[in-house]
Automatic annotation (TrEMBL):
GO terms for cellular component: cytosol. One of its GO terms (molecular function) is transaminase activity. This is Putrescine aminotransferase. CDD domains: OAT_like. The keyword Transferase applies. Belongs to the class-III pyridoxal-phosphate-dependent aminotransferase family. Its cofactor is pyridoxal 5'-phosphate. The keyword Glycoprotein does not apply. The lineage of its organism: Bacteria, Pseudomonadati, Pseudomonadota, Alphaproteobacteria, Rhodospirillales. Keywords: Aminotransferase, Pyridoxal phosphate, Transferase.
C-alpha cells in the first residue's frame, strides 16, 4: 500500500537510515554500507525486494513464518476479528472469545499436565512472565530464598532486561547489565566442547554442569533451569541424545522447575508440535511465541504445568502481572487460524516424516565441502558449522567473520540464511517443497 508514496528505493533507504534504529544493528555501519535492503512482498517461502529480486527465505523471517507467506486465511481471520472486536483486554474479569479458545486449543496441543496459558505479546515478554511465575511459585511454597534461575551460555530468551539475563549472550550482558539472580552453564556443544569424546558420554557430562552449578549456588537457592530444546540463536547447538534425560533427572533430584523455551522449536519446527516431544522433555513451563501465529501477529505466552498453576491459583491471590496485549483478540484469532492450517494440512507430520528428513539428508551432502565441519539438526532446523581445517579440528580465527561473509554473500545471491559465529543456520517455512530444498542446497554450496 505504501507504494502510493512513490519514493525510489534510494529515498526509502535515506529516510530509514536517518530515522529508524534497527534491532541488533550497528547503526553507523549500516548507514555507511548504504542502508537496509527494502523487502516489499512475499509469497510461500519467497520474498521480493524493492528492485524485484526474488529471495528464498531459509530462515522463515526470524524462525517464525511456519506456514509461509501469503496465507489469505490469516489475513481474513485478522480482518473479521478487527471488524468485530479489534481490542479488548483480559484484565479485571473480562475475556474475549479468541483468547479463551486459543487457551483451550493450546492446552489440547500441549504435553499432558499443562492445563493453563498466560498470554504475552512476544517471546521476551513471555520469558519475563516465567521469571515472575517461578519466583512467585517458590515464595508461595514457603521457600522465598529459591530465586536463582540457571540458563545456558549463548542461550537466547529475548531482549528485555529479564530475558537477556535468562539468556547467556555475554555481549548483551556487557551492554545492559546482567540482573542479579541469574547464572549460566555451558551448552552441550559436542563439536566445540567435546570433540573426540563419545557423544553420549559428552551429553551426560554436559548435563552434569547443571548439577555442578546447583551445588555451587546451593540447591536451596535455585528456582529453575531454562533452556531451548535445541539452542537456536546461540549457534544451533543440537543436544546429544543422552542430554535431556540427564537434565530432567537433575531437575527432579533437586526439585527445581524446568522451563523449556519453545519459541523456536514449537509449532512443528522439529517435526512434532513441540521440541519437548521430540526430546522427551517434561517441562513445568513452556515459552511459546513465533510459530504460534507464524509471525502474522505478535503474540507469545507461557504454557503453565499443573505444579506451578495449582500453587499460583490455590495460594496466590492476585498475581500483579500482565500486559495490555495479553490475549489480544486479533493476535489470538490469527494464531487460531494458523494452528488450523498446521493441523488441516498435516504440516507438522510432514516435517517429521517427509520434508524434514529430506532436508537433513540433502544438507548432510555438504559435509564433503572443505570448510563444512559439521551439519546438525532435525526437522526443518539445521546448522552448518564452518571450520578452517577439518583434520586438525581448527576453527577460523575471529569467530563470526567467515559466517558473516557467508551470510552476506548468500543474501546477495537470493538465499537468506543466518550466520551465528561460524555456524550457518537454516529454519525455512514448514511448507517448503523438495524443489525449494534443492534450490537452498545449491545456493548454500555456491
Ligand atoms: N526465546 C527464543 C528461544 C528465541 O529464539 C527468541 C527470539 O529469537 C525469544 C525467546 C524472544 O522472542 P521475541 O523476539 O519475540 O521477544
Amino acid at each position: 500500500a505504501l507504494t502510493a508514496f512513490n519514493r525510489t528505493t534510494e529515498q526509502w533507504k535515506q529516510i530509514d537510515t536517518a530515522h529508524h534504529m534497527h534491532p541488533f544493528t550497528d547503526f553507523k555501519a549500516l548507514a555507511s554500507e548504504g542502508g537496509s535492503r527494502l523487502i516489499v512482498k512475499a509469497d510461500g517461502p519467497y520474498l521480493w525486494d524493492s528492485e524485484g529480486e526474488q529471495i528464498l527465505d531459509g530462515m522463515a523471517g526470524l524462525w517464525c513464518v511456519n506456514v509461509g507467506y501469503g496465507r489469505k486465511e490469516l489475513a481474513e481471520a485478522a480482518y473479521q476479528q478487527m471488524m468485530e472486536l479489534p481490542y479488548y483486554n483480559t484484565f479485571f474479569k473480562t475475556t474475549t472469545m479468541p483468547a479463551t479458545e486459543l487457551a483451550r486449543k493450546l492446552v489440547e496441543l500441549a504435553p499432558p499436565g499443562m492445563n493453563h496459558v498466560f498470554f504475552a505479546g512476544s517471546g521476551s515478554e513471555a520469558n519475563d512472565t516465567n521469571v515472575r511465575m517461578v519466583r512467585r511459585y517458590w515464595t508461595l511454597e514457603g521457600q522465598p530464598e529459591r530465586q536463582v534461575i540457571i540458563g545456558r551460555k549463548n542461550g537466547y530468551h529475548g531482549s528485555t532486561v529479564a530475558a537477556l539475563s535468562l539468556g547467556g549472550m555475554s555481549a548483551m550482558h556487557t551492554q545492559s547489565g546482567l540482573l542479579p539472580g541469574f547464572a549460566h552453564i555451558d551448552p552441550p556443544h559436542h563439536f566445540q566442547l567435546g570433540w573426540g569424546e563419545d557423544e553420549d558420554a559428552f551429553g551426560i557430562r554436559a548435563a552434569g554442569w547443571l548439577e555442578d552449578k546447583i551445588k555451587e549456588i546451593g540447591p536451596e537457592k535455585v528456582a529453575a533451569f531454562i533452556a531451548e530444546p535445541i539452542q537456536g540463536a546461540g549457534g544451533l547447538i543440537y543436544p546429544p541424545r543422552t542430554y535431556w534425560a540427564e537434565i530432567q533427572r537433575i531437575c527432579n533430584e533437586y526439585g527445581i522447575l524446568l522451563i523449556a523455551d519453545e519459541v523456536i522449536c514449537g509449532f512443528g519446527r522439529t517435526g512434532t508440535w513441540f521440541g519437548s516431544f521430540t526430546f522427551d522433555i517434561k517441562p513445568d513451563l513452556m515459552t511459546i511465541a513465533k510459530g504460534l501465529s507464524s509471525g502474522y501477529q505478535p503474540i507469545g505466552g507461557v504454557l503453565v504445568g499443573d505444579r506451578v498453576a495449582n500453587t499460583l491459583i490455590e495460594k496466590g491471590g492476585e498475581f500483579y502481572h500482565g500486559y495490555t496485549y495479553s490475549g489480544h483478540p486479533v493476535a489470538s484469532a490469527v494464531a487460531l487460524a494458523n494452528l488450523k492450517i498446521l493441523e488441516d494440512e498435516g504440516i507438522v507430520d510432514r516435517v517429521g516424516s517427509d520434508i524434514g528428513p529430506y532436508f537433513q539428508g540433502r544438507l548432510r551432502e555438504l559435509s564433503d565441502h572443505p570448510i563444512v565441519g559439521e551439519v546438525r539438526g532435525i526437522g526443518l532446523i539445521a546448522g552448518i558449522e564452518l571450520i578452517k581445517d577439518k583434520a586438525k579440528h581448527e576453527f577460523f580465527p575471529n569467530a563470526g567473520k567467515v559466517g558473516t561473509l557467508c551470510r552476506d554473500h548468500s543474501f546477495r545471491n537470493g538465499l537468506i540464511m543466518r550466520g551465528v559465529y561460524d555456524t550457518m543456520v537454516l529454519s525455512p517455512p514448514l511448507i517448503v517443497t523438495r524443489d525449494h530444498v534443492d534450490e537452498m542446497v545449491g545456493k548454500i554450496r555456491r
